[in-house]
Design goal:
binds nicotinamide-adenine-dinucleotide, ten-stranded mixed β-sheet, disordered N terminus, Rossmann fold, 12 helices, globular, six-stranded parallel β-sheet
Length: 399
């Protein structure tokens, strides 16, 4: 199997958008108040569930491939302001056995929503566009899988929580690390009491730098929410799940030490952090720690998670796909290989996006609740934003 970095680099080179695109193409959509055609989309789910994909860059393409890997589904509409990404999506749909000529193609997500052709939408546009796009989707009443981070700020995340709670909309936030086979097995072990009373959750991510994106939106905190929001919302979501209580205090040290310092966009050097230590206290006394380094390409694993309780410690390693249990009395157990044979498309997230999609589809078909809610999305953004605030102010942030 190709290494993750190699796969991502290949995918990057394949993306026609990377021949260069102006930031002007990424102009944020108008607000929900500007949305003139407030037609309620009917959510009559036919046998074949019809998807719209909003934003068809790298992650949108992964979603299209996931949808193609599930029976009785089809991508029937896409929207993206960049022609290169729209063509990439159509080529991918065709490669996956779909009919490109029947796909409705839009530059603006509001046109896609007004057309009313979709039973569900996936939003994979850049982080800073999520709030406006998501509010429009909620207003249209279409079930939505919204990519992480839910929004770039706590304020926008709260606005979305408020909008969702005042509607019947089903909004599922794309925090799919929960579904990575070794991580979901670790969560199961912790929840079933293997480690006893949980006291410490340690998460290490040592990986490659941020990839290039369409219009280079991910080079600036104002677009991403900051690295600890953009990237690490996944890990704060896991910490919360594993701690089993609300976060109360966050303290962090971090910065931009190595990456992107030799780049400039219209004369502006990127300002995104590439390393940090973050400590989180939870209401039940559990302590969480994140160790992030984004100039550690040579690492055997990208993510290493250890949860320690009064009885034992359980660890998960990705992409090694291994779990280990060390009991305080019995000692270190063997490496347990965790494979999920039901994964027919691995994508770039070890099959976790496919598992997420299957569960999302089930909720769409049955009118079920999301497993990853907007409250989860808000909490993960809050923790990341608090970590940035702690770095910027040199203080402990109380949530
Ligand atoms: N869950 C994960 O693990 C994961 C991994 C990668 C990216 N993501 C998220 O997916 C989203 C997209 O990231 P990406 O890596 O695909 O970026 P990308 O730059 O490759 O693609 C983004 C696409 O959105 C388009 N776009 C810009 N404004 C838009 C708008 N208003 N409406 C619709 N489309 C618009 C761009 O033209 C581009 O084609 C981001 O929110 C990112 O954080 C999540």
């Amino acid at each position: 199997m190709l290494g993750e970095t190699t796969q991502l680099n290949r995918l990057w080179r394949l993306n026609p958008a990377n021949n260069g695109v102006g930031a002007a193409l990424l102009a944020p959509p108008k607000t929900a108040n500007d949305y003139q055609q407030k037609t309620k989309v009917s959510v009559q789910v036919s046998d074949k569930v019809r998807y719209g994909v909003i934003g068809t860059g790298m992650m949108g393409i992964e979603h299209i491939c996931n949808i193609a890997a599930i029976d009785d589904t089809a991508v029937v509409a896409i929207s993206d302001p960049w022609e290169g990404s729209r063509n990439w999506a159509l080529d991918t749909i065709e490669q996956q056995g779909g009919d490109r000529s029947s796909v409705e193609v839009y530059e603006d997500h509001r046109q896609l929503l007004s057309a009313g052709a979709c039973d569900a939408v996936v939003v994979a546009s850049p982080n800073m566009t999520h709030i406006d796009v998501a509010l429009d989707v909620v207003e249209a009443g279409v079930p939505m899988l919204l990519e992480k981070p839910m929004c770039t700020t706590v304020e926008d995340s709260q606005r979305l929580v408020d909008a969702v709670s005042g509607s019947e909309a089903m909004v599922w936030v794309g925090l799919e690390y929960r579904y990575m086979p070794p991580i979901s097995r670790l969560i199961d072990e912790v929840k079933s009491g293997t480690v006893g009373q949980v006291h410490m959750v340690a998460i290490r991510e040592h990986r490659f730098p941020f990839l290039r994106k369409v219009g280079d939106w991910n080079r600036f905190n104002r677009n991403t929410g900051g690295t600890l929001v953009e990237k690490c919302c996944h890990f704060f979501d896991l910490m919360y799940l594993l701690a089993g209580a609300e976060p109360t205090r966050v303290m962090a040290s971090g910065g931009q030490s190595v990456n992107h310092l030799d780049e400039a966009y219209d004369g502006e050097v990127p300002d995104i952090a590439d390393n940090a230590f973050v400590i989180v206290d939870f209401a039940n006394g559990v302590r969480g720690m994140l160790d992030l380094c984004m100039f550690a390409e040579g690492s055997k694993n990208e993510q290493e998670i250890a949860v320690t309780g009064d009885i034992a410690k359980v660890e998960a390693f990705v992409p090694e796909a291994v779990m280990r249990i060390a009991d305080r009395e019995a000692g270190q157990g063997p490496d347990i290989d965790i494979a999920d044979p039901s994964i027919t498309y691995e994508g770039f997230h070890h099959g976790s996006s496919l598992i997420e999609h299957r569960a999302f589809l089930e909720a769409v078909r049955n009118g079920g609740d999301p497993e990853v809610t907007v409250r989860d999305g808000l909490r993960s953004v809050q923790m990341g934003a608090a970590a940035h605030e702690s770095i910027n102010t040199g203080t402990i942030i109380t949530l």
